[in-house]
Amino acid sequence: MNTQLTRPLVTLSSELIARFAAIVGEKYAVTNPAEQAPYLVEGRGLYHGSTPLVLRPGSVEEVAAVMRLAYESATPIVPQGGNTGLVGGQIPLHGEVVLSLTRLDRIREVDALSDTMTCEAGVVLAKAQAAAAAADRLFPLSLGAEGSCTIGGNLSTNAGGTSAFAFGVARDLVLGVEVVLADGRVLNALNKLKKDNTGYDLKNLFIGAEGTLGIITAAVLKLFPAPKSVETAFVGVPSPQAAVKLLALMQERTNRTATSFELMCRLAVDFALSHGHGVRDPLDETHPWYVLLELASATPQDLRTALEEALETAMERSLVNDAAVADNVEHRRAFWRLREILPEAQKGEGGSIKHDISVPVAAVPDFLQDAGEAVEALIPGSRPVPFGHLGDGNIHYNVSQPVGADTRAFLARWDEMNEAVHRVVRKFGGSISAEHGIGVMKRNLLAQVKDPVAFELMGMLKRTLDPKDILNPGKVV
Predict the structure, then answer these.
(1) d(CA 88, CA 66)
(2) Quick one: which of 279, 294, 286, 296 has its CA closest to 325?
(3) For the chain, which terminus, N or C, has the lower number of CB atoms within 10 Å?
(4) CA 185 – CA 192 distance, rounded (Å)
(5) How far apart are the C-alpha atoms of 37 and 50, rounded to whole Å?
(6) What is the CA radius of gyration of the chain?
(7) Spatial CA neighbour of 97 closest among 60, 53, 48
(8) DSSP 8-state assignment for residue 391
(9) How many H helices and E strands in the chain?
């Protein structure tokens, strides 16, 4: 991948390192290379970085003090949450100081009456979900990495996940934010109001900005009534076209109670069965495609009857070949386990070139057809493994190497494969980044796909809010 810009390596004097360390305390200023290692590589091993210093502040005041010194000394800073990002945005590629926010892990308030929760940036997503559940509420953001990703990282990348179909992406789940700016000033916009027309909505400048405009240190999140009825089904379908029609039928027949609608090709399921642990095939026979769908309601109601009747109609219309409806919580978890293990399971098949794209839902079948043809034409024998969130048009179009191919040679063609797939994405008016962000991986592509005026405005915002280019430099813009 030719994604990294040529930038000078950052060098810090011992005096400056000591000044930074004094802000957070020696215990939380990491200089030992072995202790720094977990902060310097992303999960897939595609990006490796270096740093003279990892800082682990324990309060917003310490974050502000770090940024004041960084601004004074023009020291570049890479903010980092749970280090689960997939586009390299959280890695110090040129020796920048890492600012880890994992110690900012307090849930400041759960306000069930207002249906809000105020969390600091380092709160792990699963912890936020549990706090909401304890108040009989739902925080619907759900990701495969929810046991380790953090709220700050989720908001900085505008994460999506399996419930975005019903509840929206991270941006849609935020009422207010607290942000430390490049010069150390603190923007306190922790607003719980659902109606506030007092000028510009500044929070959305920082959500999805990947730490390039400011550092999110806390946020007011929206909560929803906890589901009282949930039904889950694993469905074999003949084609993506049938899956799209099934989606429309489910929405019509179940009073729009579908909260997740995941599409998987058979090859993805085969990989999960071969390389997953404790995973079994939910259906007796194999099918070309599968849908994992879930219905949920905040009031007790007979969703199972509605689901079964909709599936019967779908079978009559040849949209469904077979289906299994979960009988209990463990059965439901087994369905979701199969879906969640798909990215990890691909590693057992050698090299995989990833794409996180979105197209209009109705265009998904044609996209899959055209992308498959483009991939085969580029590298014959390549194995597309598409899966993802059909309900909102977000497909993880991953391509595994041909059987027996040289992994290094295959991955060396990453940029070519990206161009082939992204060309098809553009044909259908889609996006080259649906939920993973831009980071460094897609930075060079952004100018090619973004409206020129929008791209120019992004640059203007960066220069205005970060005039010294010290906030996650070389990422996004």
Answers:
(1) 23
(2) 294
(3) N
(4) 21
(5) 9
(6) 23
(7) 53
(8) G
(9) 17, 19
H/E stretch holding 367 reads: helix 364-378
Residues 6+ apart with CB under 8 A from 74: 468, 470
Q: What are phi and psi of 418, to 5 degrees?
A: -55, -50
**Cα-based angle 30, 57, 125 (whole degrees, multiple of 5):** 105
How does pLDDT run along the chain (477 residues), one tens digit per residue? 555 566 788 889 999 999 999 999 999 999 999 999 999 999 888 899 999 999 999 999 999 999 999 999 999 999 999 999 999 999 999 999 999 999 999 999 999 999 999 999 999 999 999 999 999 999 999 998 999 999 999 999 999 999 999 999 999 999 999 999 999 999 999 999 999 999 999 999 999 999 999 999 999 999 999 999 999 999 999 999 999 999 999 999 999 999 999 999 999 999 999 998 889 999 999 999 999 999 999 999 999 999 999 999 999 999 999 999 999 999 999 999 999 999 999 999 999 999 999 999 999 999 999 999 999 999 999 999 999 999 999 999 999 999 999 999 999 999 999 999 999 999 999 999 999 999 999 999 999 999 999 999 999 999 999 999 999 999 999
Angle between helices 60-73 and 14-24 (to 10 degrees): 160
The SS3 of residue 189 is strand
Distance CA 263, CA 445 (A): 27
Query: What residues contact residue 316 under an 8 Å CB cut-off, 6+ apart?
Result: none
Cα 397 to Cα 387: distance, rounded to the nearest angstrom = 7
Are 450 and 476 a contacting pair, CB within 8 Å?
Answer: no
Kindly report the three-state secondary structure assignment for every residue of 107-175: EEEEECCCCEEEEECCCEHHHHHHHHHHCCEECCCCCCCCCCCEHHHHHHCCCCCCCHHHHCCHHHHEE
Q: If we measure between CA atoms, which residue out of 409, 375, 416, 148 comes closest to residue 265?
A: 375
DSSP H helical ranges for 162-321: 164-167, 203-206, 240-253, 266-275, 303-316
> What type of residue sits at position 242?
A
Q: What percentage of the chain's residues is helix, strand, coil (to nearest 5)?
A: 40, 20, 40
pTM of the model: 0.94
